[in-house]
Amino acid sequence: MSEATALRTPLVESQIQAAAARPPGDEPAWLAQARSENLAAFTAGGLPDTRIEAWKYTALRALGQRRIGPVDVDAALRATVDSTGFVLPGVDGPRLVFVDGVFRADLSTAQDVAGLQVMPLSRALREQPESLRFALSRHYRERADAFAQLNAALGFDGVVVRVAPGAKLSSPLHMVFAGGTQAEAGSHLRVVVDVGAEAAVDVVEHHVAVGEASHLATLVTDIAVHDDARLGWLIVQDAGVAATLVRRTRAQLGARASATVHALELGGALVRHDLACDLAGQGAHLETRGVFVIGRRQHVDTQLSIRHGGRDTTSDALWRGVADGRARGVFRGAIVVAEGADGSDAALSNKNLLLSADAEIDTKPELEIYADEVKAAHGATIGQLDERALFYLRSRGIGLAQARSLLTLAFCRVALADISDERLREHLGELLDKRLPRMADA
Amino acid sequence: MLKIDNLHARVEGREILKGLSLTVNAGEVHAIMGPNGAGKSTLGNVLSGREGYEVTAGSVIYNGTNLLDLEPEERAAAGVFLAFQYPVEIPGVNNTYFLRAALNAQRKRRGEEELDSMRFLKLVREKLKVMQISDELLHRAVNEGFSGGEKKRNEIFQMAVLEPKLAILDETDSGLDIDALKQVAGGVNALRSPDRSFIVVTHYQRLLDYIEPDFVHVLAGGRIVESGDKSLAVKLEEQGYAWLADIHPDIARAELAGAKA
Ligand SMILES: Nc1ncnc2c1ncn2[C@@H]1O[C@H](COP(=O)(O)OP(=O)(O)OP(=O)(O)O)[C@@H](O)[C@H]1O
Ligand SMILES: [Mg+2]
């Protein structure tokens, strides 16, 4: 037994077994190679520890001690799932549903929409593998990328979305990732999105719980928004109380392309999201809004990184966090304005509320500017509710507890303010409200 | 209705109110004038129960109960209303929603039936006649992005809806244009009634041309040092506060200096 083998954690061991358990399909050689390279890298490096900057506030020791097996596909196909539970008002486009990483055609709704191609990745791999080669043949080398390695090694399905140039889609596409029916099972999905020039589409990435079983889910999403296109991306993360959910989203924007990302982080036990956006084309515009509301011992870590690559690119980031109980929230907002990205404008605001003495929030704004004539505004705060506002409400007769609830909800809803569909906005507001601790007036 | 006796209060360890006494009977309008920093807003804050304002001596009896024992929301339900000198912006809380929550919280505390949205909107429409504010402001977040004057009108509008028994208006006239001043005064006058009292804090005699006070007081050095009728306000407008030092040698001249300019 080599030394490296001796040091393997139960998680690494179990992932090697999971990879071996899967019979080699008739995949293209490049894909098989990407799998084995990424698995080898994961096996060699294991999970990152907190000495690695990107994982400084998120310890994975406990996860490393778990044995995560492959999903029982037949069981996932048979699991009874109430699909009314994940209906969102106004989200009425095609829906793709995965249960513990397994595509469920019976719960999904296909729609013929002109200019839109959407299908499970497994099918796209059979029908048009070459078109996915770029996205799926990546070799992740850094230990910080351990989950992307795992995903590349063990991911067999996901979603492929292609919007034809010029197509303007009015109904949001709904991707539902339901988890929690199988204990200690690992599911790994990939999403590949291509929004053609001058096209427009809205996509909802929806994580829901259909069981309370602890499990590991990874999701790696690659998005290209071509010139003059528009993308709306809404993440509603309402995973189960015992879920470990690690996501990585990478978006690239072409010239004058615009993208709006909204992220609601509500569920899960250990949750991580790396959201990296590259404003590559001149005049590209990105808006990101997000909020987490966490309690108990939840741990939610968002790593936002925005790169201004093209000239006159603009980005606006507004993130909020509320932590109660013994929860821990982490937010890193890194903005890089690259050389040559002159005339760019980047704004980032991150505000957090601590509702209990045992909760913790770490926020870390970073700004690097290598271009000229750049406007950048950056701010992060952690605090309690505004005493003046509390008094104002109370002086009008609103009880202390209700005043606190009102202000906390208002604080969070700022992140939803520009969701244009009012019913959807209200629904998401209610989801937030439900997560906020109930403070009853005496 | 209100009897303040020998009130002493400190803020941040510093004594601001130093033996203030004032009696307000039902239906009366009392104007309080006084130099900057005299403690006028402090009085309003103490009466409405703001944290950080520590009462070290004296008493405040309001309709037979010790007002200082009550939480701010209990005081509101009992009919105390403070129109803030600097109304607070509350992003994300809709103005109308807030007002309904406030009214219903008060009603609930008083054991009255809460108003459903239909009846509340009817009330709002009625009160818009007393104090006109635009539909757009009604639906914006509380005071967010309101101009100085709009904030003050919003305070009076809230007062009209909440129908307090004792309203303390802290410089509600400051920053208002002539028309807005008349409207605000009109709003206050419309609410005057035999069972409702007002304490109107102002720096300008002009407001008192529109809201006729029963009494005018000078608050200086943390106390009421002079009381009179409307003519006192006229005298203050003409002469400032310095002359008070001659009759009240115990008040430091510096404490009267605030409004000289
Ligand atoms: N929260 C506070 N913290 C520290 N000092 C305070 C606070 N509130 C009031 N003070 C101090 O108490 C004194 C009285 O202030 P107050 O606001 O009551 O004056 P005022 O009479 O309302 O003046 P103005 O006419 O300028 O509104 C001032 O010196 C002020 O600085
Ligand atoms: Mg004042």
Radius of gyration of chain A: 22 Å
Number of strands of chain A: 20
Text of the CATH class of chain B: Alpha Beta
Please report the number of helical segments of chain B. 10
Of all protein chain pairs, which has the greatest interface, and how many residues does each chain bring to it?
Answer: A-B, 24 and 32 residues
The quaternary structure here is heterodimer
The CATH H-level homologous superfamily of chain B? P-loop containing nucleotide triphosphate hydrolases
Taking Cα atoms only, what radius of gyration of chain B do you get, to the nearest Å? 18 Å
**Class inferred from helices and paired strands of chain B:** alpha/beta
Concise description?
The complex is a heterodimer of chains A (442) and B (261). Chain A is an alpha/beta fold and 442 residues long. Chain A has helices spanning 3-7, 10-21, 29-45, 61-64, 73-78, 121-127, 133-136, 146-154, 387-395, 400-413, 422-435, and strands at residues 69-70, 95-99, 102-103, 116-120, 157-163, 173-179, 185-195, 200-209, 215-225, 230-238, 243-253, 258-265, 270-279, 285-294, 299-308, 314-323, 328-337, 345-354, 360-369, 375-383.
Protein model, in words:
Chain A has 442 residues and is of the alpha/beta class. Chain A folds into 2 domains: 3-281, no CATH class; 389-442, no CATH class. In chain A, 23% of the residues lie in helices and 38% in strands. In chain A, the strands form 2 sheets. In chain A, strands 1, 4, 5, 7, 9, 11, 13, 15, 17 and 19 form a 10-stranded mixed beta sheet that branches. Chain A has a 10-stranded mixed beta sheet with strand order 3-2-6-8-10-12-14-16-18-20. Chain B has 261 residues and is α/β, with parallel strands linked by helices. Chain B has one domain: P-loop containing nucleotide triphosphate hydrolases (Rossmann fold). Chain B has helices at residues 40-48, 72-77, 95-109, 117-130, 135-139, 148-162, 178-191, 205-210, 230-239, 244-247, and strands spanning 2-11, 14-24, 29-33, 53-62, 65-66, 80-83, 90-94, 141-142, 166-170, 197-201, 215-220, 223-228. In chain B, helix 6 packs parallel to helix 7 (178-191). The two termini of chain B are 36 Å apart. The chains are: A alpha/beta (442), B alpha/beta (261). Chains A and B meet through helix 9 and helix 10 of A and helix 2, strand 7, helix 3 and strand 8 of B.
